[in-house]
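Hi W.,

Here's what went into the run:
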Amino acid sequence: MSSLVMSATCRPADYKSDIKPIWCPGCGDYHVLMSFTRAFAQLGLPPEKIAVVSGIGCSSRIPAYTNCYGFHGVHGRSLALAAGLKVTRPDLTVVVASGDGDGYSIGGNHFLHACRRNIDMTYVVMDNRIYGMTKGQPSPTTEPEFDTALTPGGTGMAPFHPLVVALASGANFIARCFSGEPNETADVLAAAIGHPGFSFIEILSPCVTFRPDEKAWKDQVRPAPVAATDDKGKAARRLMTDDGFNIGILYRGNRAPYQPAVGPNGTDLSVLESDFEL
Amino acid sequence: MGATPRISPSISIAIVGSGGAGALTTGNSLLEAASTAGWHGLFTRTLGPQIRGGEAAGLLRLAVHPVDCLADQFDLLIGIDWLNAHRFGAEIKTGPQTLVVSDPRGGEPPPMVIQSGARVVEISMKDMAKSIPDGRSNMIALGIASRLLGFTVEQVFGPMEKRLVDKGPAAIAASLAGITVGFDAAAGIDFGPRLAVPTPSAARRWLLSGNEATALGAIRGGVRFAAAYPITPATEILEWLAPSLAKIGGVLLQAEDELAAINMIIGSSYGGTPAMTATSGPGLSLMIEALGLATSAEIPVVVVDVMRGGPSTGIPTKSEQTDLNIAIYGMHGDAPHLVLAPQSVGDCLFTTQWATYLAEALQAPAIVLSDQFMGQSRAAIERPADVAFVGARSLATEISSNYKRYAMASNGVSPMAIPGTLGGQYTADGLTHSERGTPTSGAGDHLAQLDKRRDKLERFNYGDHWASVEGTGDLAIVTWGSLTGATREAAGRAAADGLEVRVIAPRLLAPVQPERLAGALAGVKRILVVEQTHSAQFHRYLRAHYDLPAPVRVFHRPGPLPITAGEIHHAIMDWR
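Here's what came out:
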């Protein structure tokens, strides 16, 4: 099926699998799934040409809920797995789904290097500022005073600032979304997929079970007051100084995506074996 | 001239110098000259951890026949200087038959060498080098060695010109002048042994390291993607793959760490491109979790572990066989996978190619256990034959409906849909899953998929390549990996003493092949296990998985000292 035909006929439902999500009722991730399927439909991508790759955590369950090819791998390594997939299969649309623990803690180093490497893929982190699957431990984005069983009285550590880190590390597209706005999120996701290079979207996605206070996010988020910039300096100032609730595309870079130097396919190995001939 | 030279099938030479003195270049050049002239040979280097300014020695054995191990003692030891040579004392065995060439300005040979009764000849290599513009002592040493070994100057010039082609005519002229001066200086020295004339052979000859052979084997097996994180002593595999893959439409990605490297190759393979990485013990430790993922999700990948001394950082530049346990047992859960071990520089090619083929055929990860000795040795060998083991994965290409990625099959191998295949969409998962791939914690699915992954490995017919089995005696030596070479040589010496010895070296370590080993051991009365570990890992592995139908002795020692054929021969003769 060509993408042209798909775009004329496809609906978000075409991208949903028949597996019923096991997220908690009210979890923000339901809306993120909705945004995924809407963005894919909007772009008219054939489902078999999309790969959704994830690690471990509530958010990382998303691949199996789509009707795309999926990979639910080990904790924290989704970006590396996706890199190996995309450089060998540039014809695929690769979307990586992660959470604040999977992406910023155990997978933190891969985040830095995926930004640097700038392979053409889209990285979506559903940030709820808590480890939900293991029942409420602080993540790198949890506020320092947030009290948990593991960190009585809070962590005392400043939260990680993923968007600033992404910018400093070389991400080519940076956006923040709110799960409660699935149409807007779908639009941003479609733009991110269309943007060359490594695109990073932080989606604020409340954990209603361990962070019921995050239900208030819907009243705190607002469209970013200024349009996306391609100026890294301006973007840095904006990202460093906003309160974390400006929604929209915040930075669009113009770095050329990573392109491996690949010669023509060859099965004649004599070009290599001549290295060893006496 | 002295007495008539004694014709010898093999001569061993050690060239010692402080780091940067060029001892390794001298040794490599001798190997190139000898192999161009038709001899076989093995060159290995031994060095300290310093990048510059430490100690370096090139250890070389030239022979009329292929050699897979060094000799027990050296016939010729050339000290360009002796600054840190005492650190090699235990590695470079000398004796009364050894000729030592020493530069009086480079210090005294180590006491161990003097005490061994070796003959010492002094030649002022440094002064001779100074008489030549841009002259270097290691070229003088090369000239000396060439004369003593009976080469002509021209036999050494050719490889040197080839080696220095990028450095320009001045560098070549300086080197050739140095070789000539050294060659002349060695006139009249009575060395003693002389290499027998090589048998002319029409076979195409190759000169390559085990690490290079490993990399080419992976490519011959179908690998077209590699992920790379540098680590001693595996880096040369990755450095050879980088330009080589690019020439044939493949890709190498440098990873940020070994965790990324293993996951990158899983991603590539999931997308349909056979993939490998290479590492050593510390890196393998980091890759183990994702190897479990590849096992569960049934994604073929090849991981080469070039073993070095462990645990922890251990001895990065020296060989050991101590990653056997982690390779076999490292993964959590019940995780059947492939573990293979090459037995020589040339066999690195075959075994890695076979590992790639098996991984693809069985949709399982394969760990290839090479080691520093094989990996970093260069050997002159006959071009390894082309074999038919080219990875061919069972693919689901035409899918009607209700595709089940992990469907039960009599051979346990279920056709794999590659992204892009219409109707084949599934999610590969490290969670226990159903035939469709849907996560489940049900007992039935768990057992069924565990059975499937076990059965596909156990029901496969691995054929005769599972081990090399030689000889018929009632004493069997069971060994593995790079110790196979020294063991075979020891068995040859025992045969010369009138004792037939069987040598059994499994190439396929997992899945285990109890019936095949039982067949190979039929009728034996004594079993000698030989391995380079401290805790006798291989012996314990054999005890756990196989019947050993005779009394067993174990000869094991950790690195860094190589286990020599002489020591194994002694262990054999000690038990007759």
